[in-house]
Structures are given as structure tokens and as C-alpha cells.
Amino acid sequence: MEHQTIVEALLLGLLEGLTEFIPVSSTGHILLAGHFLGFQSTGKSFEVLIQLGAILAILSVYFGRLWKMATDLPSDPRTQRFVLGILVAFLPAAVIGALAHDFIKTVLFESPRLICIMLIIGGFVLLALDRMALKPKYHDVMDFPLSLCLKIGFFQCLAMIPGTSRSGATIVGALLMGTDKRSAAEFSFFLAMPTMAGAFAYDLYKNRDILSAADLPIISVGFVAAFITAVIVVRYLLNYVSRHGFALFAWWRLIVGAVGLAALMVWG
């Protein structure tokens, strides 16, 4: 394994953990960075499989709360409704993602110009959202009705276009339908668990014949790096969003998208 490739995997893993749960599109950032670094993974699986590190970051930070939910689930109707809501929200992405998997990986993942355009569009959406005088009706993720969960699930499907952002799509959808900023971000965290775990398992299954032991060191390095940075982001993001909104992430998207387009015009 080339030292350079390991360093690239480390950098991309850090980028994954840093961007997975903020509305800037982790996949878009990794694909763009990989494009300019010349990083090539087998079947574009590295970019999906290292998300397991981010999943485990949520599990570690929310372990106490998840454990309480697990013990309350058999007897507590409120917990049962919440878990059902997460599964309902996950369903659209599970169905559409499975049907469109090959198109997403072979067409959308191979279009860095599309990623830059979606980053810029998403930046303007977040800026507009921050300026809206929205009046939230829901302040606790445990109280989201199933109909709201399903609508957020459909918004999540927009993130199949790289550069859109899974967390961005779910947070924007939730806010437009009456949640406050903190509960929107928190619901996005919980929805990430089945969504990313499902994407991980499905991608691993689809690429089982082309992945080899030689891919393991690269994926492992990216996985560990993603876990470490994602833990830090998950611990502090909710409080930041509650106080400051999404303007920082909007400008981040606009700058990265514009710089990416300029770099593509110069270097291709």
C-alpha cells in the first residue's frame, strides 16, 4: 500500500467525520477532494464504507439515550412512536436508494461539476432559510407525528444527488414543516443511523466481489479518522445550531462550490 494513498485516506476520513452531520454534504466534499487528489477507490466504496465511523460516533455520543430507548421500547408508547417515526422516515431512502444505486454510483458520483453546483444551490437555500420568520410547532423529536417523519424522509432522498447534503435536506425539510432548529438537527442525527447503516450494508453487498484485502487498510484508516472527527462534531453541533443558525454552513458551501468550479475550469 502506497504511503501517499494512506495519507489521502486519512485526510478524506477526517473530512467525512467533519462534514457528515453538518449541512454541507460530506459525500460531495469527499468526491471533490478525491477528484483533485487523484484518489480512486474500488467501486467508489471507500466514500460509503467509511460512513460507518460516523455512525459509531452517534452511537457512542447517544449511547445512554439509545439504551434508555431500548429498555423503554416494550412498554412506552411515546418511545414506540418515535422509533416507528424513524423507520417511516428511513423508508423512502431505502426504496429509492436501492432502485437507483447503480445510477447514483456510476453517473452522479462521477460528476464533480454537478457537486459544485448543488453545493452553491444548497448554500443559497440555507441563507434564505435563516432569514425566514418560521414559527416552530415541534420542539421535541419524540413528539414528531408520523406524517411529518415521512415528509422528512422524502426530503432526505434529495441527498442522493451528491453535493445536496443528507443532513441539510432533512434539516431544511423539518424546519419548513414546523420544527425548531435543535429538534430538526437532532432528528437528522437519529435518521442518519438506519440510513447510513443501510447504505453501508447495501454497498458492501453490491461490491463484495470486487473488494479485496488490499482495500482494508485504506478503508480502516478512513473509518477511524471519520469516527474521531464525527464524535467532536456531534457533541457540539446542536448547541451551535440552536444559537447561531446555518449561515456559516451556507457560506462554507458557497465558497467550496465556487472554488471547486473555478478549479475544474482551470485543471479539469
Automatic annotation (TrEMBL):
UniProt entry keywords in alphabetical sequence: Antibiotic resistance, Cell membrane, Cell shape, Cell wall biogenesis/degradation, Hydrolase, Membrane, Peptidoglycan synthesis, Transmembrane, Transmembrane helix
Broad EC category: hydrolase
Gene Ontology cellular component list: plasma membrane
A GO molecular-function descriptor: undecaprenyl-diphosphatase activity
Record family assignment: Belongs to the UppP family.
Note: Bacitracin is thought to be involved in the inhibition of peptidoglycan synthesis by sequestering undecaprenyl diphosphate, thereby reducing the pool of lipid carrier available.
This protein's name: Undecaprenyl-diphosphatase
Gene: uppP
